[in-house]
């Protein structure tokens, strides 16, 4: 929204000789009264910042997004899985999903029903398990760069409930985020998180994240961690670092090698007086025409691979495997993803896929 | 600082709100989605995984 006036100002500055640079435009309100010097300084700072034309740094939450989508840690599963998604309306989006998972070594068999409704500004998502647990998500964008998010988990067991309130603001060259997890309004206990990421140069963004834990009204513990992100000029590689107090460092590197290949490396270092540990993970992702293949190797001796093969746009077959060479263990997962729609071909623009 | 009485009331309101959301959130999404969908789907297609 604000990019249009910026670029014109910048163009004007470049085209005209420095001697005839127009004076800063007067603020909308007449610069009189006790605050006029402050208003002037603010305007000058804002103009100077605009003239730097720094890129948006992305959010703190998505600092390592590229690495996470390249690695298969978030995608791997074991046992059998089936996801049936049914789109009932395209705009606004209304979709229901039925997910089944069976025979996993780590988690019991489960069934989950989910519903998503989304229009331009609001996204509502809900899921219910076979044992009655509900998770809820609600996102409301107030403008292009101001979003409120609410996440909650409701369980029939006491003590398993969770609510997270989040406010996200994305400026031209910075992003701000505030989170409250399980806040209790009368005594303000809970976990609070604030983070700020600012572009410093065209390539470098620096930021911090502060965590405040208040388990009871008279205890509050603060911990601050620092973040850095370096994006190359062509945006084809990104390096990030996340330093937490107590000697925990997480560093990552992601590079796009070509149209179809991305590689990522991730290093987790823990160097506390009682424990010294490090895990390195190396992964690659291939985006082929109808399939996505991910392979990963880490320093704990795990080799894993994940294949997502789309036979038609509505039918995908998933294969996930992991071998732990040090522990001599293996996991295999097989899954299907079926998407169907009740919309007619004219409404969707492609042939309907019925089960 | 609110009194103990008010605190207790706020706690009760939150507890009721939590229970309401627990049972009503998914029906609420389905209701909103069902009424705002364009075109409106039939109910059986909504519930059954196979229809």
Please summarize what this structure is:
Chain A is mainly beta.
Here the CATH topology of chain A equals Porin
Largest sheet of chain A: 19 strands, mixed, barrel
Could you spell the SSE succession of chain A in H and E letters?
A: HHHEEEEEEEEEEEEEEEEEEEH
* Total discrete domains of chain A: 1
| Assembly form of the protein | heterodimer
Describe the structure.
The complex is a heterodimer of chains A (355) and B (51). Helix content of chain A is 11%, strand content 55%. With 355 residues, chain A is mainly β. Chain A has one domain (65-341): Porin (Beta Barrel). Chain A has a 19-stranded mixed barrel. Mean pLDDT of chain A is 86; it is low at 1-19 and 351-355. Chain B is mostly helical and 51 residues long. The model of chain B has no long low-confidence stretch (mean pLDDT 83).
Notable characteristics:
heterodimer; A: about 350 residues; mainly beta; Porin; 19-stranded mixed barrel; globular; disordered N terminus; disordered C terminus; B: about 50 residues; mainly alpha; 2 helices; about 75% helix; about 0% strand; elongated
Chain-wise SSE layout:
The complex is a heterodimer of chains A (355) and B (51).
Chain A: H1 3-15, H2 36-52, H3 65-70, E1 79-89, E2 93-102, E3 110-118, E4 122-129, E5 134-143, E6 146-154, E7 162-170, E8 174-184, E9 189-199, E10 204-216, E11 219-231, E12 237-244, E13 248-256, E14 261-271, E15 276-287, E16 291-298, E17 302-312, E18 315-324, E19 329-341, H4 345-348
Parallel strand pairs in A: 1-19
Antiparallel strand pairs in A: 1-2, 2-3, 3-4, 4-5, 5-6, 6-7, 7-8, 8-9, 9-10, 10-11, 11-12, 12-13, 13-14, 14-15, 15-16, 16-17, 17-18, 18-19
Chain B: H1 4-36, H2 43-47
């Amino acid at each position: 929204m604000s990019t249009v006036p910026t670029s014109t100002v910048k163009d004007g500055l470049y085209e005209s000789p420095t001697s005839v640079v127009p004076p800063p435009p007067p603020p909308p309100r007449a610069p009189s009264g006790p605050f006029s010097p402050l208003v002037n300084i603010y305007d000058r700072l804002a103009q100077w910042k605009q003239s730097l034309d720094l890129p948006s740094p992305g959010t703190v939450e998505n600092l390592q997004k590229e690495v996470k989508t390249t690695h298969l840690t978030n995608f791997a599963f074991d046992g059998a899985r089936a996801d049936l998604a049914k789109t009932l309306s395209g705009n606004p989006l209304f979709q229901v999903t039925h997910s089944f998972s069976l025979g996993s070594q780590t988690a019991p068999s489960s069934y989950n029903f989910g519903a998503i409704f989304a229009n331009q500004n609001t996204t509502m998502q809900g899921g219910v398990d076979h044992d009655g647990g509900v998770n809820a998500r609600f996102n409301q964008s107030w403008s292009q760069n101001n979003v409120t998010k609410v996440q909650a988990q409701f369980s029939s067991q006491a003590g398993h409930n969770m609510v997270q309130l989040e406010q996200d603001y994305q400026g031209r060259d910075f992003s701000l985020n505030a989170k409250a997890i399980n806040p209790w309004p009368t005594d303000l206990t809970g976990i609070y998180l604030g983070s700020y990421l600012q572009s410093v140069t065209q390539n470098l963004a620096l930021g911090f994240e502060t965590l405040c834990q208040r388990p009871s009204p008279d205890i509050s513990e603060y911990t601050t961690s620092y973040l850095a992100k370096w994006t190359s000029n062509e945006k084809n590689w990104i390096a990030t670092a996340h330093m937490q107090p107590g000697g925990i460092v997480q560093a990552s590197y992601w590079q796009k090698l070509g149209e179809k290949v991305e590689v990522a490396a991730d290093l987790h270092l823990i160097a506390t007086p009682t424990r010294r540990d490090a895990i390195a993970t190396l992964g690659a992702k291939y985006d082929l025409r109808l399939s996505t293949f991910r392979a990963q190797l880490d320093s704990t001796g795990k080799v894993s691979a994940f294949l997502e093969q789309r036979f038609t746009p509505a039918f995908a077959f998933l294969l996930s495997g992991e071998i732990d060479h040090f522990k001599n263990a293996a996991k295999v997962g097989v899954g299907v993803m079926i998407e169907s729609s009740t919309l007619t071909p004219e409404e969707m623009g492609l042939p309907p896929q019925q089960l | 600082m609110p009194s103990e009485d008010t605190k207790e009331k706020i706690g009760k309101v939150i507890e009721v709100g939590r229970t309401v959301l627990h049972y009503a959130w998914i029906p609420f999404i389905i209701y909103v989605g069902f009424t705002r969908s364009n075109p409106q789907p039939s109910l059986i297609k909504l519930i059954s995984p196979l229809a």
